[in-house]
Design brief:
alpha+beta
């Protein structure tokens, strides 16, 4: 009777080798599960980052398209009272703004006593593409900038004049002249972007 019981216990138990094999398989499954979870998390992070970049780029394109389509052949006066061209560009020069102009169609949500015109500047500062706006079209204070795109390493502009010619510099014959279109190219994190914008509703 005792021998039979001992044999039955031996058949129902696990040997040391079997236990080690089971632990090894469990460890392999755990490692695989961790790797799959890490891959899923990394994939989600990359997707969120790419979607964020796409939203940032779409915001920039939409805002610049809206500004330039409403650009007006209106000269302005600086803080000293001197007349300035309706459209200016100092890309690569001493001036911080690579685009500056006056646009119309500005809404007046608060019902303030002001014009529907707005003077806009686009600047590239420390790799950040910024949009600045003045509180008044002639002189006046300028608001804090809105950063549209960051990590820009280079920026190039081309302008199409009324004769249909393209040039890397904007040189107006008259102070009220506007370009017909603008091409903007910039590099961000090793990738090159190119955007084309029409200028002014009456310049199509």
């Amino acid at each position: 009777m005792d021998k039979v019981s001992a044999k039955s216990c031996n058949r129902n138990g696990f040997t040391l080798v079997e236990m080690m094999v089971a632990l090894f398989i469990f460890a392999m499954l755990s490692v695989a599960g961790v790797i799959m979870l890490r891959t899923a998390v990394d994939s989600d992070e990359i997707t969120a980052k790419n979607l964020g970049k796409m939203a940032e780029m779409q915001r920039f394109v939409s805002l610049m398209e809206a500004d330039l389509s409403q650009a007006l052949p209106r000269t302005s006066r600086d803080d000293r009272g001197d007349r300035t061209p309706a459209f200016g560009s100092e890309a690569g020069g001493a001036e911080p703004a690579f685009l500056k102009f006056t646009r119309g169609g500005q809404s007046n949500i608060n019902g303030q006593a002001r014009s529907n015109l707005e003077r806009i500047e686009y600047r590239l500062t420390d790799g950040n593409l910024e949009r600045w706006r003045y509180r008044m079209t002639d002189g006046g204070k300028i608001d804090q900038p809105a950063v549209l795109i960051s990590q820009i390493t280079s920026l190039d502009l081309r302008f199409r004049d009324k004769r249909g010619q393209w040039s890397s510099r904007w040189e107006a014959e008259r102070l009220a002249d506007l370009p017909r279109a603008i091409e903007i190219q910039f590099e961000q994190q090793g990738r090159r972007y190119r955007h084309l914008f029409l200028v002014g509703t009456g310049y199509l």
